[in-house]
Protein 1
Amino acid sequence: MEVSFLGAAKEVGRSAIMLNGRRNYLLDCGLKISGVSEEYPLIEPQDVRRLDGVIISHAHLDHSGYAPALTAKGYRGKYWMTKPTRDLVQLLLSDYLSIEKATHAYTTRDLNYFLKNIQVLEYERRKEEVTFFDSGHILGSAMTLVEDSGHKILYTADLNTRETRLLDGAKKGLQADTLIIESTYGSTADQHLSSKEIYASLVKEVKETLDKNGKVIIPSFAIGRGQEILFTLENYLKSKMLPPTPIYLDGMVKKALRIYRHNAIYLKDEVKRRILTSDDDPFKCEYYTAPERKDRSDVLEQEKCVIVTTSGMLNGGPVLFYLKKLAGDPKNKLILVGYQAQGTRGRQLLEGANEIEIDGEKIEIKLTVTQAKFSAHSDHKELVEFTKSIRGLKRVFVQHGEASKCEEFAQELGRKLKGVEVTAPALGETFQLR
């Protein structure tokens, strides 16, 4: 059995891992989007043509965004994923194609072929050599266990063992001889606040701004983070810990909400019950308004409000409209609530930039920029605990993290796991499992 790391090795983005054994699988096939540039996995046509299946762990573009391009490289097989991932990936990939730019990774024809050849797998129901387990990251996200050529290989993809407002945490204690684990927050310095502290910090930042009659912009990923932010704001408004305030929901997060409602059985029991059996649906809430594009200027006329919109790293989307209009007023606030990749506007602002460029125009930043440290990834301690829970472990590959974090986490696991081989692969590196 060979394992080849064709992306996300000592980097975040373009996840793609090739397994060549009795059968050949590609685990994820994503894009690396940094600012306006893109990087693709190191996948050759001759490798694509011998694939028996492509497995997509979840809908985020860094794991799914290059998959339709495999058609042009000669792939004619199935794409395996959960039902929520199927629904969400159609939304995200269609949106990716709609963005005006010189080139895309694939064509509309490629996307249509991809969508027609999706095969849905449920959690914990084995299909051939493959079994999915809930990874706790976003709706429908999956860890993948591949049993082939005498090996049990567990690929975590993006992992969250912590329970959130919407999802249960990832399942621990699985059996595997080989673990491929992420390290987004793999450094010993990466220690998340408790969920209660994170929610309280967000509401504190929001309330401070509203008390000054300012407007709050919360750039959010359409999937996962946007829903959790809305759920949190709704909870604090209902308990009157936030004053009555207009909340505007804009961008792709609006469409994603409908998909969450249609896949309620994959959410936590409490949320599922509210959606399916009561008039208390958190995603059809009296507190939210979803403006049309033509009505965005009306939102700005509000004395104070909260705007939850895409995109989470300020790469594009309605957030740029709102930021251009609101950046010049110190009463306003931008609250970053997700990971900000290098080269993105979000990362620039997080690092203290006084101006950013939007549509060729320099925008002076006078509003307050702050961060509420939400995460859909496990932190360092949680990653260690998860790894220790795996039964029968012989080797670990650490990937999906900045180079320093991959290397640090691999070194620490090597010290803590006696008799287990731990490696942080380089991009393009292949390993023979014996």
Note: Residues 195-211 form the longest helix (17 residues).
Protein 2
Amino acid sequence: MTESKALDLIHLEDMDGNRCLVRVTGRLRPGVLTSHDLLRADVLISASFVDARLEMCLSQQDLSSWQQSLAELGPGGNASLGAGRGLELGIQVNDERSVSVWVEDPDRLTTVLLIRTSEDWIAEHHDRLRHVRQAWPGEVVETASAAYEWGPEHRH
């Protein structure tokens, strides 16, 4: 099995140079049953006052929560990734054309960016999520608490 190329789960960027990307780079430990479905990601943030690359680990549950948040997102709403585990990233919709993105890595950085968005950014991010899930589908099933086995989707 070959790893897919890196895919952007989140790609928010404006003409002012403000940017936040969550780039999924592959499985954390491919072939290791307990962590096969965990995905490695780089969080790239830049603005006039910050330029950082942080690491993040995403679970299949994170992707499901992200999907639900996107489906419910509207003005004043917010969505987040990584809640309660190290690096957290959140997006708050200010209005139809701008979002506030906050990134908090307890050991390294806390920042907020204002990014002007395209009209269809939410639909684009649904597509991005679909592409990530196609590239790295969930292949492990938890059969009981802390008991795992390969699911029928597992590619050998």
Note: The chain has two helices and ten strands.
Protein 3
Amino acid sequence: MPGYTIRLFGDPVLKQCAREIEEIDGGLARLVGAMYETMYEASGVGLAAPQVGVQRRVFTYDVGEGPEVLVNPEIVESSGEWTFEEGCLSIPGLSFEIVRPRYVTLRGVDLAGNEQKFEADDYLARVFQHELDHLDGVLMLDRLEPEVRRQALRAIRERDVLTVPPAARNGKPRL
């Protein structure tokens, strides 16, 4: 199955909550395979289904240890605080300092239907939270202070960053 086109800021699908996945089947496996392809093609480290126009609660990620997927993920615990620069495949060319919990406990299921539970910190915790935000219709811009958000929106308009092809995004991995 060929990869997908990544939906960009302004697409209403990015502001909607994704629906739970009730059945893990071949269709979901094909979706996940195409999401991996799309994520790698865009030099991303994570990709949520809404970013490719599919309103289902699943995301893929690879932080250097191979491709992974979580179906119906949820954070069950979080603590600490950490400010770190984030980028997003749906808002190419821009990155912002985002405050998030430093530690999270996350659970979901894999493609075999097995329950998974992760205790993550730092970068992996951030990837999980960023992708979960997409499943809830939240973009990183929504996490900015009002004045920083206004500046970000102005930068998007002025730079027309939403037309930047993946290869021109300065090689930095994006969530």
Note: Strands lie at 46-48, 58-61, 68-79, 82-88, 91-100, 103-109, 115-121.
